[in-house]
């Protein structure tokens, strides 16, 4: 685990700490001709050498990590389009981490005990999180769909699917506050959302829209509270 964490630290340093957005754009634009691509690889190499204390014992692992990082990044650069950027970003990171795990296992073999996934507490947590995120979103949508007000379909008025993600995040926060016994934080979260929504509702001058948003918010918080209480009781 210690060796893998060293690899992971070097990866975070190279991919996030010392890779500005301008470098990413340069790689996307010039691809293999981008000098930033090769500087990026040198930074990864330097980070690996630093966290490993320049230990020559790991030279094969270092070469493997840097070379596979180059291959994965090049594939991502050429496969990337506007509609798959998010998917390729996460796939890219997962592949990098799997390579780090494989190299760490090569030097210090370890067993992956998958039986931990059958732990009752973990299963309850995973079920609760699925309920809080996706199941609750569908329940709320179905419940309040008949009251949905007619709004302007201007694409610039709101981010795509922003309301859905805001709802998921707020329920995750509420669930976390309850299981950690910080009920007072729920009030601050509700107040913060009310402040941000106040301007929209004031400008809309629409009582139906206000009631629609209020019902959705209370349902969202209520389902998250129920899930949090259920998890705390079952565990």
Q: Note the total helix count.
A: 9
Class based on secondary structure composition and strand pairing: mainly alpha
Shape: globular
Show unreliable segments. none
Task: Report how far apart the termini are.
Answer: 28 Å
Largest sheet: none
Order of helices and strands: HHHHHHHHH
Strand residue percentage = under 5%
Task: Return the average pLDDT rounded to an integer.
Answer: 87
Give the number of DSSP strands: 0
Specify Rg, calculated over alpha carbons: 24 Å
* Helix content class: over 70%
Number of domains: 2
Summarize the structure.
This protein is mainly α.
Top keywords for this entry?
235 residues; mainly alpha; globular
Outline the structure in words:
It is built from nine helices and no strands. It is mainly alpha-helical and 235 residues long. It folds into two domains: 106 residues, no CATH class; 120 residues, no CATH class. Helix 4 runs antiparallel to helix 5. It is globular and about 65 Å long. The protein starts with a helix and ends with a helix.
Strand and helix map with partners:
Blueprint: H1 2-17, H2 21-30, H3 35-51, H4 59-79, H5 85-107, H6 120-144, H7 162-179, H8 184-204, H9 207-234
């Amino acid at each position: 685990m210690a060796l893998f964490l060293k690899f992971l630290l070097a990866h975070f340093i190279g991919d996030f700490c010392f890779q500005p957005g301008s470098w990413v754009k340069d790689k996307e634009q010039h691809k293999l001709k981008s000098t930033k691509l090769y500087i990026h690889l040198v930074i990864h190499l330097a980070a690996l050498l630093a966290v490993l204390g320049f230990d020559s014992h790991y030279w094969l692992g270092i070469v493997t990590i840097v070379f596979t990082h180059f291959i994965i990044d090049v594939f991502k650069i050429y496969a990337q389009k506007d509609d798959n950027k998010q998917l390729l970003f996460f796939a890219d990171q997962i592949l990098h981490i799997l390579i780090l795990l494989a190299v760490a296992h090569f030097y210090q073999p370890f067993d992956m005990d998958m039986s931990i996934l059958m732990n009752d507490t973990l299963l309850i947590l995973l079920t609760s999180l699925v309920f809080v995120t996706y199941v609750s979103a569908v329940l709320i949508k179905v419940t309040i769909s008949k009251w949905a007000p007619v709004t302007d379909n201007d694409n610039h008025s709101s981010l795509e699917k922003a309301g859905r993600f805001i709802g998921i995040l707020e329920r995750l926060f509420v669930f976390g506050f309850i299981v950690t016994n910080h009920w007072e934080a729920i009030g601050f979260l509700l107040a913060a959302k009310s402040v941000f929504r106040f301007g929209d509702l004031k400008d809309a001058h629409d009582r139906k829209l206000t009631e629609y948003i209020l019902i959705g918010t209370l349902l969202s918080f209520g389902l998250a509270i129920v899930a949090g209480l259920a998890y705390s009781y079952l565990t």
